[in-house]
Amino acid sequence: MTRPRFPVPMPTRDGVSPSCVSLPYGPWPTIADFLVERFPAISREAWLSRIEANDVCDEHGVPITATRRYESPLRVYYYRALDAETPIPFEELVLHQDDDLVVVDKPPFVPVTPTGKYVQQSLLVRLKRKLGLDDLVPLHRIDRNTSGLVLFSVRRETRGAYQAMFPERRIDKHYEAVVPWHEGVSSVPAVYRSRLVDDDHFMRMREAPGEPNSETRIVLREARDGHALLELSPVTGRKHQLRVHCQALGLPIVNDPFYPTLQPAGNDDFDRPLQLLARSLSFIDPLSGALRTFESPRRLALPSAPAAAA
Predict the structure, then answer these.
(1) What is the pLDDT of residues 106-130, one digit of tens each?
(2) Catalytic residue annotation
(3) Alpha carbon 280 to chain centroid distance?
Protein backbone atom coordinates (compact mmCIF):
# COMPACT_ATOMS: atom_id res chain seq x y z
CA MET A 1 0.00 0.00 0.00
CA THR A 2 1.35 3.42 -0.94
CA ARG A 3 1.62 5.84 1.95
CA PRO A 4 0.11 9.29 1.38
CA ARG A 5 2.67 11.93 0.46
CA PHE A 6 2.29 15.17 2.37
CA PRO A 7 3.54 18.41 0.84
CA VAL A 8 6.81 19.52 2.42
CA PRO A 9 6.47 23.14 3.59
CA MET A 10 10.24 23.86 3.54
CA PRO A 11 12.54 23.70 0.50
CA THR A 12 15.78 21.76 0.19
CA ARG A 13 18.59 23.97 1.47
CA ASP A 14 22.23 23.47 0.54
CA GLY A 15 21.41 19.91 -0.49
CA VAL A 16 19.62 19.06 2.78
CA SER A 17 15.92 18.23 2.71
CA PRO A 18 13.95 19.13 5.84
CA SER A 19 13.43 16.41 8.43
CA CYS A 20 10.01 15.76 9.92
CA VAL A 21 8.79 14.68 13.36
CA SER A 22 5.18 13.96 14.29
CA LEU A 23 4.07 15.29 17.66
CA PRO A 24 2.54 12.50 19.77
CA TYR A 25 0.00 13.09 22.51
CA GLY A 26 1.86 14.18 25.63
CA PRO A 27 2.33 16.70 28.46
CA TRP A 28 4.87 19.12 26.95
CA PRO A 29 3.99 22.80 27.54
CA THR A 30 5.50 23.99 24.27
CA ILE A 31 6.70 22.48 21.00
CA ALA A 32 10.21 23.66 21.87
CA ASP A 33 10.07 21.65 25.13
CA PHE A 34 9.17 18.53 23.16
CA LEU A 35 11.99 19.02 20.64
CA VAL A 36 14.56 19.43 23.42
CA GLU A 37 13.41 16.20 25.09
CA ARG A 38 12.98 14.26 21.84
CA PHE A 39 16.46 15.13 20.55
CA PRO A 40 18.75 15.24 23.62
CA ALA A 41 21.88 15.53 21.48
CA ILE A 42 20.74 19.03 20.47
CA SER A 43 20.84 21.64 23.23
CA ARG A 44 17.93 23.90 24.13
CA GLU A 45 20.04 26.86 23.02
CA ALA A 46 20.56 25.26 19.60
CA TRP A 47 16.82 24.64 19.16
CA LEU A 48 15.97 28.19 20.21
CA SER A 49 18.55 29.50 17.74
CA ARG A 50 16.99 27.46 14.92
CA ILE A 51 13.51 28.61 15.92
CA GLU A 52 14.62 32.25 15.99
CA ALA A 53 16.06 31.82 12.48
CA ASN A 54 12.69 30.42 11.25
CA ASP A 55 14.32 27.05 10.55
CA VAL A 56 11.51 25.14 12.28
CA CYS A 57 7.93 25.20 11.01
CA ASP A 58 4.69 23.22 11.12
CA GLU A 59 3.08 21.24 8.31
CA HIS A 60 1.31 24.36 7.07
CA GLY A 61 4.56 26.30 6.68
CA VAL A 62 3.95 28.44 9.77
CA PRO A 63 7.20 29.09 11.71
CA ILE A 64 7.33 27.65 15.21
CA THR A 65 7.96 30.20 17.96
CA ALA A 66 9.74 29.54 21.25
CA THR A 67 6.50 29.93 23.21
CA ARG A 68 4.05 28.18 20.87
CA ARG A 69 1.97 25.74 22.88
CA TYR A 70 2.21 22.03 22.22
CA GLU A 71 -0.25 20.70 19.64
CA SER A 72 -0.92 17.08 18.77
CA PRO A 73 -1.25 15.66 16.24
CA LEU A 74 0.96 17.97 14.21
CA ARG A 75 4.01 17.49 11.97
CA VAL A 76 7.02 19.72 12.57
CA TYR A 77 9.76 20.26 9.99
CA TYR A 78 13.33 21.33 10.64
CA TYR A 79 16.77 21.29 9.03
CA ARG A 80 19.40 18.94 10.35
CA ALA A 81 22.61 20.79 11.11
CA LEU A 82 25.91 20.08 12.79
CA ASP A 83 28.18 22.60 14.47
CA ALA A 84 31.27 20.98 12.96
CA GLU A 85 31.51 18.25 10.35
CA THR A 86 34.73 16.41 9.57
CA PRO A 87 35.58 16.71 5.86
CA ILE A 88 36.00 13.39 4.03
CA PRO A 89 38.89 13.84 1.58
CA PHE A 90 37.49 11.66 -1.22
CA GLU A 91 35.20 12.58 -4.11
CA GLU A 92 32.36 10.60 -5.64
CA LEU A 93 32.20 10.05 -9.41
CA VAL A 94 28.93 10.26 -11.36
CA LEU A 95 29.10 7.42 -13.90
CA HIS A 96 25.67 7.82 -15.49
CA GLN A 97 22.74 10.25 -15.40
CA ASP A 98 19.44 10.22 -17.27
CA ASP A 99 15.86 11.34 -16.60
CA ASP A 100 15.25 8.47 -14.15
CA LEU A 101 18.57 7.23 -12.75
CA VAL A 102 21.89 8.44 -11.45
CA VAL A 103 24.67 5.91 -10.97
CA VAL A 104 27.53 6.96 -8.70
CA ASP A 105 30.85 5.47 -7.66
CA LYS A 106 31.05 6.17 -3.92
CA PRO A 107 34.39 6.53 -2.15
CA PRO A 108 35.00 4.83 1.21
CA PHE A 109 34.08 6.57 4.49
CA VAL A 110 31.18 8.49 2.88
CA PRO A 111 27.68 7.52 4.15
CA VAL A 112 24.99 7.22 1.51
CA THR A 113 22.48 9.33 3.49
CA PRO A 114 22.82 11.80 6.39
CA THR A 115 23.51 9.94 9.60
CA GLY A 116 25.12 10.68 12.94
CA LYS A 117 27.88 13.23 12.53
CA TYR A 118 27.59 13.39 8.73
CA VAL A 119 25.09 15.58 6.87
CA GLN A 120 26.87 17.75 4.29
CA GLN A 121 29.46 15.01 3.80
CA SER A 122 26.85 12.35 2.98
CA LEU A 123 26.68 11.14 -0.62
CA LEU A 124 23.03 12.16 -1.03
CA VAL A 125 23.59 15.74 0.07
CA ARG A 126 26.77 16.04 -1.98
CA LEU A 127 24.87 14.89 -5.08
CA LYS A 128 21.88 17.16 -4.48
CA ARG A 129 24.25 20.12 -4.36
CA LYS A 130 26.33 18.98 -7.31
CA LEU A 131 23.48 17.98 -9.63
CA GLY A 132 20.73 20.32 -8.41
CA LEU A 133 18.29 17.39 -8.01
CA ASP A 134 16.22 17.99 -4.88
CA ASP A 135 14.11 14.82 -5.34
CA LEU A 136 17.10 12.48 -5.60
CA VAL A 137 16.63 9.29 -3.52
CA PRO A 138 18.97 6.27 -3.12
CA LEU A 139 17.41 3.03 -4.35
CA HIS A 140 19.65 0.93 -2.09
CA ARG A 141 22.45 1.41 0.44
CA ILE A 142 26.00 0.25 0.89
CA ASP A 143 27.96 0.64 4.12
CA ARG A 144 29.78 3.88 4.82
CA ASN A 145 33.09 2.01 4.78
CA THR A 146 32.34 0.22 1.49
CA SER A 147 33.25 1.85 -1.83
CA GLY A 148 31.60 1.39 -5.20
CA LEU A 149 28.29 1.66 -7.02
CA VAL A 150 25.11 3.24 -5.68
CA LEU A 151 21.94 3.68 -7.74
CA PHE A 152 19.73 6.76 -7.24
CA SER A 153 16.21 7.57 -8.43
CA VAL A 154 15.61 11.00 -9.97
CA ARG A 155 11.81 11.06 -10.37
CA ARG A 156 9.00 10.02 -8.04
CA GLU A 157 6.93 8.90 -11.04
CA THR A 158 9.29 6.04 -11.92
CA ARG A 159 10.86 5.39 -8.51
CA GLY A 160 8.61 2.50 -7.51
CA ALA A 161 9.47 0.47 -10.62
CA TYR A 162 13.18 0.64 -9.83
CA GLN A 163 12.77 0.14 -6.08
CA ALA A 164 10.89 -3.10 -6.69
CA MET A 165 13.95 -4.66 -8.35
CA PHE A 166 15.75 -5.03 -5.03
CA PRO A 167 13.27 -6.96 -2.83
CA GLU A 168 12.27 -9.02 -5.88
CA ARG A 169 15.95 -9.89 -6.53
CA ARG A 170 15.88 -8.68 -10.12
CA ILE A 171 19.26 -6.96 -9.88
CA ASP A 172 22.65 -8.69 -9.92
CA LYS A 173 25.24 -7.17 -7.58
CA HIS A 174 28.88 -8.19 -7.56
CA TYR A 175 31.50 -7.15 -5.01
CA GLU A 176 35.23 -7.64 -4.59
CA ALA A 177 37.02 -8.08 -1.28
CA VAL A 178 40.60 -8.53 -0.16
CA VAL A 179 40.97 -11.00 2.71
CA PRO A 180 43.83 -12.71 4.54
CA TRP A 181 44.79 -16.07 3.04
CA HIS A 182 46.35 -18.85 5.04
CA GLU A 183 48.90 -21.32 3.76
CA GLY A 184 47.28 -24.65 3.04
CA VAL A 185 43.88 -23.19 2.19
CA SER A 186 43.06 -23.85 -1.45
CA SER A 187 39.38 -22.97 -1.88
CA VAL A 188 36.28 -21.23 -0.55
CA PRO A 189 32.70 -22.50 -0.56
CA ALA A 190 30.80 -21.63 -3.74
CA VAL A 191 27.79 -20.63 -1.64
CA TYR A 192 27.60 -19.59 2.01
CA ARG A 193 24.31 -19.36 3.91
CA SER A 194 23.56 -18.47 7.51
CA ARG A 195 21.04 -16.79 9.77
CA LEU A 196 21.96 -13.17 10.56
CA VAL A 197 20.50 -11.33 13.55
CA ASP A 198 21.20 -8.08 15.37
CA ASP A 199 24.24 -8.22 17.63
CA ASP A 200 24.25 -6.94 21.20
CA HIS A 201 25.97 -3.85 19.81
CA PHE A 202 23.54 -2.00 17.53
CA MET A 203 26.22 -1.37 14.91
CA ARG A 204 26.96 -5.04 14.25
CA MET A 205 25.31 -8.25 13.07
CA ARG A 206 26.04 -11.83 14.10
CA GLU A 207 25.21 -15.35 13.04
CA ALA A 208 22.68 -17.40 15.01
CA PRO A 209 21.25 -20.92 14.84
CA GLY A 210 18.15 -21.37 12.72
CA GLU A 211 16.86 -21.17 9.17
CA PRO A 212 19.31 -19.24 6.96
CA ASN A 213 18.11 -15.79 5.90
CA SER A 214 21.25 -14.73 4.03
CA GLU A 215 23.11 -16.18 1.07
CA THR A 216 26.35 -15.19 -0.67
CA ARG A 217 28.02 -16.71 -3.72
CA ILE A 218 31.82 -16.70 -3.54
CA VAL A 219 34.54 -17.06 -6.17
CA LEU A 220 38.28 -17.09 -5.43
CA ARG A 221 39.90 -14.84 -8.04
CA GLU A 222 43.52 -14.70 -6.88
CA ALA A 223 45.63 -15.74 -3.90
CA ARG A 224 49.25 -14.91 -3.16
CA ASP A 225 51.56 -13.59 -0.46
CA GLY A 226 49.10 -14.11 2.38
CA HIS A 227 46.06 -12.41 0.81
CA ALA A 228 43.27 -13.34 -1.59
CA LEU A 229 40.88 -11.47 -3.86
CA LEU A 230 37.31 -12.75 -3.65
CA GLU A 231 34.29 -12.06 -5.83
CA LEU A 232 31.18 -11.87 -3.63
CA SER A 233 27.66 -11.94 -5.05
CA PRO A 234 24.95 -11.41 -2.42
CA VAL A 235 21.72 -13.24 -3.22
CA THR A 236 20.06 -11.59 -0.23
CA GLY A 237 20.71 -8.09 1.09
CA ARG A 238 21.13 -8.33 4.86
CA LYS A 239 23.00 -5.64 6.78
CA HIS A 240 26.77 -6.34 6.81
CA GLN A 241 26.09 -9.68 5.11
CA LEU A 242 29.34 -9.90 3.15
CA ARG A 243 31.45 -8.75 6.09
CA VAL A 244 29.90 -11.25 8.50
CA HIS A 245 30.10 -14.13 6.02
CA CYS A 246 33.78 -13.49 5.33
CA GLN A 247 34.47 -13.28 9.07
CA ALA A 248 32.60 -16.55 9.66
CA LEU A 249 34.84 -18.25 7.09
CA GLY A 250 37.92 -17.04 8.94
CA LEU A 251 38.59 -14.49 6.20
CA PRO A 252 37.75 -11.07 7.69
CA ILE A 253 37.90 -8.34 5.06
CA VAL A 254 41.10 -6.31 5.30
CA ASN A 255 40.76 -3.06 7.31
CA ASP A 256 37.25 -3.87 8.57
CA PRO A 257 36.60 -1.64 11.61
CA PHE A 258 33.66 -3.81 12.80
CA TYR A 259 34.71 -7.44 12.32
CA PRO A 260 36.22 -9.30 14.04
CA THR A 261 36.83 -6.43 16.51
CA LEU A 262 34.70 -3.31 16.78
CA GLN A 263 36.97 -0.28 16.65
CA PRO A 264 36.19 2.94 18.60
CA ALA A 265 33.79 5.31 16.87
CA GLY A 266 35.35 8.29 15.13
CA ASN A 267 38.59 6.40 14.58
CA ASP A 268 38.67 6.60 10.76
CA ASP A 269 42.05 6.01 9.18
CA PHE A 270 41.78 7.41 5.66
CA ASP A 271 44.95 5.55 4.69
CA ARG A 272 43.36 2.19 5.52
CA PRO A 273 39.96 1.93 3.78
CA LEU A 274 37.89 -1.22 4.03
CA GLN A 275 38.89 -3.51 1.16
CA LEU A 276 35.33 -4.11 -0.04
CA LEU A 277 34.14 -2.77 -3.39
CA ALA A 278 30.65 -2.78 -4.90
CA ARG A 279 32.07 -3.56 -8.32
CA SER A 280 29.08 -3.94 -10.68
CA LEU A 281 25.29 -3.76 -11.04
CA SER A 282 23.24 -5.41 -13.78
CA PHE A 283 19.48 -5.48 -14.35
CA ILE A 284 16.70 -5.48 -16.93
CA ASP A 285 15.35 -1.94 -16.97
CA PRO A 286 11.72 -2.12 -15.78
CA LEU A 287 10.74 0.74 -18.09
CA SER A 288 12.60 0.00 -21.34
CA GLY A 289 13.19 -3.75 -20.98
CA ALA A 290 16.86 -3.24 -21.92
CA LEU A 291 19.76 -4.90 -20.11
CA ARG A 292 21.74 -2.27 -18.19
CA THR A 293 25.15 -2.91 -16.66
CA PHE A 294 27.32 -0.51 -14.68
CA GLU A 295 30.84 -1.09 -13.39
CA SER A 296 33.01 0.82 -10.94
CA PRO A 297 36.30 2.15 -12.32
CA ARG A 298 37.93 1.28 -8.99
CA ARG A 299 40.05 -1.82 -8.57
CA LEU A 300 41.19 -3.66 -5.47
CA ALA A 301 44.73 -5.00 -5.48
CA LEU A 302 46.45 -7.59 -3.33
CA PRO A 303 49.16 -6.14 -1.08
CA SER A 304 52.69 -6.59 -2.31
CA ALA A 305 54.85 -9.04 -0.42
CA PRO A 306 57.44 -7.37 1.84
CA ALA A 307 60.88 -7.17 0.31
CA ALA A 308 63.35 -9.77 1.52
CA ALA A 309 66.10 -8.56 3.83
CA ALA A 310 69.46 -7.99 2.16
Answers:
(1) 999 999 998 878 888 999 999 999 9
(2) 143
(3) 17
